């Protein structure tokens, strides 16, 4: 008769369990690194989609922290009819991103202005509430990994080759 005995099955499962425990730390490290990369890709995609929406709708499109304070809480994308960079009643919500994974943070550094969110004007250019041009860097960091996204005043975003501290 062909088949596998109970002893052979238990030995195979024990070997598999030992192998799984051996690689578990490296799997966790990869998962953490991927969390930083996924957050950076999501934010870059949000910026590119918001710019395209601003050009397509001929309306100001804003990206703001979900809690109104920090992008670490996630962010919302919406048509900013009153140009205050905050999602108010009656404004069209275009997208929502969940809070960031544990250990991952996002920080926006704009040249002369302090704001966590940003808005794309009808022309696709990035603007402040006071209609001033805005450019700078968004830094996503965590788990010994940093990714910087730079954005110029024309609204073009790209991943920076270097991301200094």
UniProtKB/TrEMBL annotation:
Belongs to the GSP H family. This is Type II secretion system protein H. Keywords: Cell inner membrane, Cell membrane, Membrane, Methylation, Transmembrane, Transmembrane helix. Transmembrane segments: none annotated. Residues 39-153 form the General secretion pathway GspH domain. Its main location: membrane. GO terms for cellular component: plasma membrane; type II protein secretion system complex. It is a single-pass membrane protein. The keyword Ribonucleoprotein does not apply. It is found in: Cell inner membrane. One of its GO terms (biological process) is protein secretion by the type II secretion system.
